[in-house]
Amino acid sequence: MEFTVPWASLFGGMLLGVSASILLLFNGKIAGISGIVSGLLKNKVGDKGWRWLFVLGLIAGGLLGTTAFGATIPTSYDSQLWVLLLGGLLVGIGTKIGNGCTSGHGICGIGRLSKRSLVATCVFMLVAGVTVFVRLHLLG
């Protein structure tokens, strides 16, 4: 295995941090994706415009990124549709139970010095590490 410095990932992470800070500073809103999207499903008047713009910006940024860097969007998957849908449902349930998603706690929560987000992010990382270890060393 060869180590290379992931400059694009570092730059992308910096952009995420800056954008989350700008949204909090100028709008007083937290850039947690699960909270933003779930807010679109609620009947709160006057709170949807910025949420739609944020989601459209995510989509446009992804499309722009694939164009700018020559990446491709997957069109086929190794799993069956029901497995993908079940995985998405479980992620949604976990996000609701955990009061936010992994990136929301990691980027926005820790940035606001939230103890809950610090603990949640540490648990996420620990479980990810154990999962990789089990997958690579115990399941072969």
UniProtKB/TrEMBL annotation:
UniProt main location, coarse: membrane
Keywords: Cell inner membrane, Cell membrane, Membrane, Transmembrane, Transmembrane helix, Transport
Membrane topology: Multi-pass membrane protein
Cellular localization per UniProt: Cell inner membrane
Pfam families: Sulf_transp
Entry keyword annotation includes Translocase: no
Bilayer-spanning residue ranges: 6-26, 52-73, 79-97, 118-138
Cellular component per GO, a single term: plasma membrane
UniProt record similarity statement: Belongs to the TsuA/YedE (TC 9.B.102) family.
Protein name according to UniProt: Uncharacterized protein
